[in-house]
Amino acid sequence: MSRRLLLLGLALCCIGPASAEPRIELSAGPAWKGWTRPGRTTEIDIRLQSDVETRASLDVATGRESVGAAVELQPGRVARLQIAIRSAPASAVSVRVTPGPPTARDVTLAQSESPLLGVALATGELVALEGFHALALAADDLPRNASAYSSIDALVIDAPTLVALDQRQLGALVAYTADCGRLVVLDAGAAVQRLLDGARGCGAGAVTSARSLADAKAMLSESLATSMPPTLSLASAGALARPGHAAWNAIAVSLAVYFAAAALALVYLPALPVMLLAPALATAALLALLQGVHPQSQLIVWSEGKSAAPLARYQAWQRFPGIVRERVRVPLPPQLGAAVQPCEAGQAMRFEVDASGARALFAEFETRLFRQVALCYRGTFPMERSIAVAARADGSYVVRNTGGRAWPSGVLLAAGRVHELPAIVPGAAANVAGEARRPAADAALRLASTRIRIDQTAALWALDLSGVAGAPVDSTGWLLVAAAPAR
Amino acid sequence: MNETLASRFAALSGLVLAAALALWWLGSARLAIDQGADAARGSADALHAAWLVRALLVPVLALRVGALRGWRDGAASSLAMVVPSWPVLAMAWSASAVPLGQSLLAEGFLVVAAIVLPLLGHGLRRVVPRSELAEPIASALGVALAAALWLGHARWAFSSAL
Predict the structure, then answer these.
(1) How far is CA A335 from the centre of its chain?
(2) Beta-sheet strand order (sheet of A116-120)
(3) Can you give the residue range of the structural domain that contains B147?
């Protein structure tokens, strides 16, 4: 009898916690009505609700990448996260929430081979543009992550939809325009115009405002006829990095020492135990040596802008050299974590994002000796460089600082040559003459010369990255500004 | 060749083999680092080559020395051929994606072969007491074993490639 009571008590004890498991409601929907393009980035909008206060662990997996977030759930309140994901060929995203029985939702993405035109009009009208697949969008279909704008190739939006966007959506749209995204605003008011004026990149060629839908279509066609400056490929910034040889050097020296010691032992101590023990001890010592080596990551930032433009576009590349076979979890610089992805598409990686899904905090990946896992970041930052250059008959250049802030010294790229550029205070001018050199000697100068037209003049400065929180000690950056012709 | 000399010669051969392997692996790894590529493929190749070369040498050496000098010397010479590569292999494994179990199994196989095959040589000497006859038979057996291993390996590699 007492045994039965004990069993009953145990059963009740176990049923108690099981019935207290939180009931999680999960819904997930993609941005752009589920449309994206192969190899681009899109966004999943996730809504979570629980009947009790709990901490949920969210996991979004797509291809070989996954994104995780820890979410505090309050009863009766919907937690929303917008997570940027890479468009995968499988086009299936699963969202999983623990604790308790996993709740999963599959999100299907449609990958368009044609360029995508987003049409976000309150009237629900659609603009047909030859060669484009047009999508009729509502305000909520627009993403909150700027990187998700890479899914579309052009956007038409009207003022009522623009007003209906929340703060994060507006921020992402502004970042899209700053990143040379093609945008036509229908019936833009003065306030909207001012907002976009402050952010438009690429010499304002990509952002226009129209009075009617027909105007919008014509402007879009006109905008598409002019090509925007090509974005820097992910590998280009990495080409500026110096290969890290510290681990290789340490291992080469250690192996040389081992071979020398083994040869000496063979000559002077030819006993069998020595011959067998020496390699075993050397193996243990080398493995211990690897545990003691901690190579630093390297960060390269390459940024570009036009003279007097308020924003510069950047691409950053961070390499994490591997030493031992392990899974590492590395913190990401907070200012760069908004748009991050592995530089190699096939690299398996897990990102840990903040509670809103807006910023990646950590990256987790498998590493091994000599493996160089690289992360690529992109975005924009405010810039105050205004430069006017006039060529003179004697081959020299008059460079004027037409902005309100002094420059440090840098280099001037003109007619395929490189000249030293002195520091210039606002309003002042300098005569740049003297010995010009070819850009071949320096990787940054070579890259800069490939990023400007042959008839274009530009200045290249080293970037001060001390303001980038969490940047590694070995950080280097450049800012390339295309000059305006002097009047 | 006396027994110490045989062991020293085997150890020297093992050391030279390990040094050649280290040179090749370090060279390929350096090229991979300079090109921003992954050194895993070259490292896996180095592991594979090291195993194959030693697996071909051990039967010949172990059976011959086992038949001529007995089990102890045969095992000592064979192990002295196998073991010097370990530090290089540990580094190459760290840089490769080869599972640890697979690498340990391959090395274990070589160690067991280095211990067991001299016993066969020793047994052969008992069956054929004349050393001038036992030596070529043991050598021929070793070469036959190595050839069988090579053919088996080639067939396995061919079927894996399909």
Answers:
(1) 10
(2) A133-136, A116-120, A154-158, A183-186, A207-210
(3) 3-155
- Contacts with B3 from chain A: Cβ below 8 Å: none
Question: Who among A258, A276, A371 is closest to B83 (CB)?
Answer: A276
Q: What percent of chain A shows pLDDT beyond 90?
A: 37
- Both tokens assigned to A366: 């498998």
Residues of A in contact with B39 (CB under 8 A): 369-371
* Cβ distance of A372 and B29 shorter than 8 Å: no
pLDDT at position A276: 85
How many alpha carbons lie under 13 Å from residue B34 in its C-beta half-sphere? Answer: 6
Give the torsion sign (CA, A193, A194, A197, A200). Answer: negative
Instruction: Tell whether the model's pLDDT for residue A124 goes beyond 80.
Output: yes
Residue B20 lies in a domain: yes
Is B162 in a helix, a strand, or coil? Answer: coil
At A168-223, the pLDDT tens digits run 998 899 888 888 888 888 887 777 777 776 666 665 556 778 888 888 888 888 87
* Terminal Cα-to-Cα distance of chain A (whole angstroms): 103
Residue B135 lies in a domain: yes
B34 lies within 8 A of chain A by CB: yes
Residue B94 contacts A, CB cutoff 8 Å? yes
Return the pLDDT at A2: 54
pLDDT per residue as tens digits for the range A377-399: 988 888 889 999 998 888 889 99
- A286–B91: do the CB atoms touch at under 8 Å? yes
Provide the sign of the torsion angle of the four alpha carbons A380, A381, A382, A387, taken in this order: negative
Q: B128: which DSSP letter? A: S
Alpha-carbon gap, residue A33 to A15, rounded angstroms: 42
- Please give the tally of structural domains in chain B: 1
Tokens 């990149």, residue? A201
Q: What is the DSSP letter of B84?
A: G
The complex's ipTM? Answer: 0.91
- Please report, to the nearest 10 degrees, the dihedral formed by the alpha carbons of residues A61, A67, A68, A71 taken in order: -100
The predicted pLDDT at position A301 comes to 93
Is position B162 within any domain? no
Average pLDDT over residues A42-59: 87
Per residue in A151-168, pLDDT (tens digit) is: 999 999 998 898 899 999
- pTM here is 0.83
Whether B161 is covered by a domain: the verdict is no
Q: If you average pLDDT over every residue of chain A, what do you get?
A: 85
